[in-house]
Amino acid sequence: MTHDPNLPAPAPAPAHGVPAPQGWPVAPPTQPFQQPTQAPPSHQAPPQAPADPALHAALSAVRAEVAKAVVGQDAAVSGLLVALLCRGHVLLEGVPGVAKTLLVRALSAALDLDTKRVQFTPDLMPGDVTGSLVYDARTAEFSFREGPVFTNLLLADEINRTPPKTQASLLEAMEERQVSVDGTPRPLPDPFVVVATQNPVEYEGTYPLPEAQLDRFLLKVILPAPERAQEIEVLARHAAGFDPRDLGAAGLRPVADAEVLARARDAVRQVQIAPDVLAYVVDVCRATRHSPSVSLGVSPRGATALLATSRAWAWLSGRSYVTPDDVKTLAASTLRHRMQLRPEAELEGITTGAVLDAVLATVPVPR
């Protein structure tokens, strides 16, 4: 899989446990999904309890199931798992044909979650997403008809092709996990994750997401084109009869469910973070606000998001404490879409990834 040029090269896959996510900023420790064998540095809190091996095994099985349908997008699978553990939302960016839709469908099948897809178009109305009141002539009353947002995994396909009015219809759902129609709030299912996609090469006739909505996405994951060997494997699967519209025929089966995710989220909340690592998260986010290339830096919401994703990554790596490397690993995917560059910086070819690299290189790391 082609590596994101704004991220450091991934480390080799470990010898055991779940394979290191290819293309993710930094690979997990050499023994993911296991407790460390030596004491952590003094600035880190010691593990309080061993991780539940059944939870890690379930998430390991999810990776294996998704791999039956999707080739070479391990980074995106990692991002979606982190988002599910943090109850956050994901913005997927990639050219057409890199399995964005298939990835969401395969993940929902492996987790036995309900999923719905909405194709965002210029004529889409807010009620088409959230639902609306419908008049019933038999009872002479209005009843609420749920929209596709009432699901576990909502695939908002090409979200930037619909006007801001319809884009804004997702704001309450993403933040409050509810939909208010006619003054009545209606809760959404749990878990509820929005996976929005956008095409990075076609901007004519699109409506770029405003900063307020970009800030609602926990992660931005870039899906590159697969490498040559991976693309050959994709074609070989299709030549052998693989049908992306029939995941059951590909052998995908549920290996986890919402209850497993809920238990895993509880475990993630028990992951400890030392005061100096907590301060490191704040210092990284504050440094983006003072960069001369940035007109809008990372908000406090971004800092809380980085804290959450770092804890989830630490738990996935088999630790009950967060290290500065966890923060560095998730910084790009968590923060780059929350920053706005100055026009002169964009003209000079500076990217948010380059700004984050400079920030991470200058902010003192706790030892």
From TrEMBL:
Gene3D superfamilies tied to this protein: Magnesium chelatase subunit I, C-Terminal domain (1.10.8.80), P-loop containing nucleotide triphosphate hydrolases (3.40.50.300)
Keyword list, A-Z: ATP-binding, Nucleotide-binding
Annotated region (Disordered), positions in chain: 1-51
GO MF term list: ATP binding; ATP hydrolysis activity
Entry-linked SUPFAM superfamilies: P-loop containing nucleoside triphosphate hydrolases
All residue ranges annotated as the AAA+ ATPase domain in the record: 86-227
Keyword Transport: no
Biased composition (Low complexity): 32-42
Assigned protein family: Belongs to the MoxR family.
Protein name: MoxR-like ATPase
Organism this protein belongs to: Luteimicrobium subarcticum
Lineage, uppermost ranks: Bacteria, Bacillati, Actinomycetota, Actinomycetes, Micrococcales
